[in-house]
């Protein structure tokens, strides 16, 4: 993994070369027992060594053990460098500040102080033994170099204070980013559920339960068998496991109805769950559940409880709003039906009655009337019939959602893709051919989940900027093609038997394939690194029945 250089790293590495250049310059022009070419050779070796150590510090700055050994080795080299360059009179004694800066920036406080005290102790010992034998007392040597030691101590303290401030800023930045992610997630939920997407409401809740809690598995279970109710959904399990999980949850529906606070539940063969019942006043009873890990701490669980309470309240708002809109739509339909019934009674039925009466009268008298008068009466009957047809068409037009622009499956799909495109800054083109009004509900549900899953994978895992969705509906077969320009992946990473070894979207691919096969269709996926991904689906019509 290639690490980006921080401003702190750039400053430290720049200081290494600048300080070495200045120190070398002083060493080159001062009097010494070494001649010029020996000094130049030594300086060249030092620059090569510094370059090597700098490369190690950059590459292995996340590996504490490698970093500790490298810093200790460079410090030992600086101590040895004092022997040919004058001992405590050597200008290179100041260069030890550079490995100290690296230690303070990337390693613990204990290691930094241990390194500093070891350097001071070793330098004093070696110089006292080899350079000033019997000339000074050790205390005199310390006093002569007190400035160096004070600079090293103050530098170490300053770098550690800066390090503490940096860590606090890092924590604050992470908290700010987490808060922004939380706010964006809430906005996304509100935006997604603002288009009456009942087909996808449960999936939205379970997906964002996983996202906000940073867990791997969650579910939204709605205890309702009514066709107009939102679908129960889950994130993290396969479709086969979903059916078994919801069947298991059905055994506890009476217990769930009585719960008013977050609670823990152990489900045999499924593990430990943190659950909460959505507080609602409608006909629905919904439960949000989160799969707990084996090493979940008490503090972490308290945080998860807070997130679930928030999600439950948010879900209650969505479901109650959905229920109110459903009731409002029913009232609108009822009022419209009454209005149309009155119009048909006042207009269409009267016209039909007049036609019947005129036809009966003409049948009794046509043989005694002139031809011109009979034709005139037939024209009047025809005009009345045409007027009745026009009024009947108007009534049918008012009742038809196909003509009046009411909520349809196609509108739900377009709304969902538009939301994904808007919130993720991705261009999504949806092209459909054929009559989607005659598409059975089971096909609508499966196709919606496949399109939603494929588009979500392309954005989350593929980092796509453009997605093309093409749907062709014929009386014999349904064909779906989804192509994106994302990063792609090697399809060989999807192993036989349905298990995905890749972490990105493998489970979603399995679910899409299962949905296609459950409808009697064929599922094919092709992808290459850097060339995007294409999903092709073919489902024969009426094969499911």
Automatic annotation (TrEMBL):
Its main location: cytoplasm. PROSITE patterns: HIS_KIN. The chain crosses the membrane at residues 12-29, 35-57, 69-86, 116-139, 145-165. It catalyses: ATP + protein L-histidine = ADP + protein N-phospho-L-histidine. Keywords: 4Fe-4S, ATP-binding, Cytoplasm, Iron, Iron-sulfur, Kinase, Membrane, Metal-binding, Nucleotide-binding, Transferase, Transmembrane, Transmembrane helix, Two-component regulatory system. The keyword Kinase applies. GO terms for molecular function: 4 iron, 4 sulfur cluster binding; ATP binding; metal ion binding; phosphorelay sensor kinase activity; protein dimerization activity. Its EC number is 2.7.13.3. InterPro entries: HATPase_C_sf, HATPase_dom, His_kinase_dom, Sensor_HK_TwoCompSys, Sig_transdc_His_kin-like_C, Sig_transdc_His_kin_sub3_dim/P. GO terms for cellular component: cytoplasm; membrane. Pfam families: HATPase_c, HisKA_3. It is an enzyme of class 2 (transferase). Residues 343-543 form the Histidine kinase domain. It is found in: Cytoplasm. It comes from the Bacteria. Its cofactor is [4Fe-4S] cluster. Member of the two-component regulatory system NreB/NreC involved in the control of dissimilatory nitrate/nitrite reduction in response to oxygen. NreB functions as a direct oxygen sensor histidine kinase which is autophosphorylated, in the absence of oxygen, probably at the conserved histidine residue, and transfers its phosphate group probably to a conserved aspartate residue of NreC. NreB/NreC activates the expression of the nitrate (narGHJI) and nitrite (nir) reductase operons, as well as the putative nitrate transporter gene narT. This is Oxygen sensor histidine kinase NreB. It comes from Paenibacillus polymyxa (Bacillus polymyxa).
């Amino acid at each position: 993994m290639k690490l980006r250089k921080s401003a702190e790293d750039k400053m430290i590495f720049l200081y290494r070369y600048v300080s070495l250049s200045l120190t070398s310059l002083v060493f080159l022009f001062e009097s010494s027992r070494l001649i010029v070419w020996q000094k130049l050779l030594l300086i060249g070796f030092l620059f090569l060594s510094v370059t090597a150590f700098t490369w190690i510090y950059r590459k292995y700055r996340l590996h504490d053990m490698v970093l500790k050994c490298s810093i200790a080795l460079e410090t030992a080299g600086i101590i040895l460098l004092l022997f040919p360059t004058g001992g405590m009179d050597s200008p290179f004694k100041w260069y030890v500040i550079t490995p100290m800066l690296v230690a303070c920036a990337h390693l613990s406080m204990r290691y930094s102080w241990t390194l500093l005290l070891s350097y001071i102790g070793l330098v004093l010992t070696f110089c006292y033994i080899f350079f000033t034998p019997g000339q000074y007392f050790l205390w005199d040597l310390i006093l002569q170099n007190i400035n160096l030691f004070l600079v090293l101590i103050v530098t170490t303290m300053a770098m550690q204070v800066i390090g503490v401030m940096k860590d606090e800023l890092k924590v604050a930045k992470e908290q700010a980013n987490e808060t922004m992610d939380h706010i964006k997630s809430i906005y996304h939920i509100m935006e997604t559920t603002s288009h009456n997407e009942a087909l996808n409401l449960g999936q939205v809740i379970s997906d964002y339960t996983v996202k906000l809690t940073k867990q791997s598995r969650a579910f939204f279970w709605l205890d309702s068998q009514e066709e107009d109710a939102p679908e129960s959904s889950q994130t993290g399990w396969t479709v086969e496991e979903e059916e078994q999980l919801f069947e298991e949850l059905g055994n506890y529906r009476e217990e769930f109805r009585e719960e008013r606070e977050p609670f823990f539940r152990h489900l045999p063969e499924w593990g430990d769950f943190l659950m909460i019942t959505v507080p609602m006043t409608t006909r629905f009873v919904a439960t949000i559940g989160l799969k707990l890990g084996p090493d979940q701490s008490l503090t972490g669980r308290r945080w998860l409880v807070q997130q679930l309470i928030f999600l439950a309240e948010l879900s209650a708002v969505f479901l109650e709003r959905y229920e109110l809109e459903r009731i409002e739509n029913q009232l609108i339909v009822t009022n419209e039906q009454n209005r149309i019934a009155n119009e048909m009674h006042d207009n269409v039925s009267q016209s039909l009655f007049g036609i019947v009466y005129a036809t009966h009268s003409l049948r009794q008298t046509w043989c005694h009337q002139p031809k011109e008068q009979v034709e005139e009466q037939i024209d009047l009957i025809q005009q009345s019939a045409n007027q009745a047809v026009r009024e009947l068409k108007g009534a049918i037009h008012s009742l038809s959602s196909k003509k009046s622009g009411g909520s349809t499956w196609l509108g739900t799909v377009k709304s969902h893709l538009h939301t994904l495109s808007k919130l993720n800054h991705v261009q999504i083109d949806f092209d459909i051919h054929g009559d989607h009004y005659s598409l059975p509900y089971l096909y609508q549900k499966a196709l919606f989940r496949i399109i939603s899953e494929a588009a979500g994978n392309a954005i989350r895992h593929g980092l796509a900027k453009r997605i093309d969705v093409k749907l062709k509906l014929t009386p014999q077969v349904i064909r779906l093609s989804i192509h994106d320009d994302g990063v792609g992946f090697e399809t060989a990473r999807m192993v036989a038997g349905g298990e995905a070894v890749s972490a990105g979207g493998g489970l979603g691919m399995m679910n899409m394939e299962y949905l296609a096969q459950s409808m009697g269709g064929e599922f094919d996926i092709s992808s290459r690194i850097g060339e995007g991904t294409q999903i092709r689906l073919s489902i024969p019509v009426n094969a499911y029945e």
